[in-house]
Amino acid sequence: MFADRAKIIIRSGKGGDGHVSFRRELYVPNGGPDGGDGGKGGDVIFEVDKGLNTLTDYRHRRKFQAQDGEPGGKRRCHGGNGSDIILKVPEGTVVTEATTGKVIADMSGENIRQVILKGGRGGKGNMHYATATMQVPKYAQPGQPAQELEVQLELKVIADVGLVGFPNVGKSTFLSRVTNAQPKIANYHFTTLSPNLGVVDLDGAGFVIADIPGLIEGASEGVGLGHEFLRHIERTRVIIHIVDAASTEGRDPIDDIYKINKELEAYNPEIARRPQVIAANKIDAIYDESESPVELLKMEFEPKGIKVFPISAVSGQGVKELLYYVQGLLNSMEQKPVTFEQEFFPEDVLVTENLPYTVEVDEDDAHTFIVEGPKIEKMLGYTNLDSEKGFAFFQRFLKDSGILDDLEEAGIQEGDTVRMYGFEFDYYK
Question: 377 with 396: CB under 8 angstroms?
Answer without folding.
Answer: no
